[in-house]
Amino acid sequence: MIFEQIASGGCQSYLVGCDETCAAALIDPEISQIDRYLALAAKHGMRIRFLVDTHTHADHFSATQELARRLEVPVIMHRQSPAPFVDMRVDDGEMMLVGDLRLRVLHTPGHTRDSMCLVLPDRVLTGDTLLIGGTGRTDLPTGDATALHDSLFNRLLKLDPKLLVYPAHDYKKQGHSTLERELAGNPRLQKRERAAFVEMMGSLNLSMPTHLTEALRTNMSGGKTIAQLLSEAAAKVSFMSMEELKGRVEAHESSLLVLDVRERDAYVEAHIPGAKLLPRGQLELRVNQELPDPTRRVLVYCDFGKVSTLAAATLREMGYTRAVALDGGMVAWSEAGYPMKEGTEP
Ligand SMILES: [Fe+2]
Fold it and tell me: Which residues are near ligand 1, the ion (C-beta closer than 5 Å)?
């Protein structure tokens, strides 16, 4: 068996592969690590056959849907998962065959309703049901402390105590543990009586994870994250540095049209000399009047360089093949002390 643990911040993903057949499963992949997973699988000579999320993640952006599209392999989640893009729904007691390996599903609701652990002969991927020195929280959507108590004490912790524990989160970089070690030392497992456990879980006062709303929106619907939209747009356009633009502005280069896509108020307050105003919200509807020549070289800028990247990608899509985005924005431009002008358009 090949087994790789891939950390991305505190999130842990796993590549589990069969040596005999070169088939592998990727568990809990995160969107920023796609190239790493593919490179690792290639390094081991493995073909990823299954993409598994142990539960609906509220704190990271799952890469299962994107990888499924690229690799043409199924996304697997528990039957209770709300995500519409799941190809194979599994339930307690079932197995996934990864070459000669068998990954057994243990349904362990509590952290979320759709949480599951994946059991291998010598180890268990515990998702967010059991962490090293902790457990998953139960105060996020579909969380249930009573269910977690049952999943832990009547299911997971009844397995062979020698099993290695590989969780979906490991903030302290401990790597792995064993069921036995967790039973003995994990502070959350010392309240074994149900009511006491539920009371403890209810009084943790944890702060909300960053990106909670966006993570649930994208992981439950299959929609894109803002970072994905921006990186897709950035792959479609070229950029110009602020320094390069400053030189061209100072030289009054007439062949370059500088386009400010912020709102009018921001433009009036300060803009790049010679820039034309066309707010992002009106771009598609006014582009024919404002930019009649699609062969014109256009440089787009905004405050931070994000909206301008989206706008430049839209312009390229509409046939402005020389649309370029500023690598930077008005905020950095102003901080650099580069030339600015007040007032409305001439
Ligand atoms: Fe989680």
Answer: 128
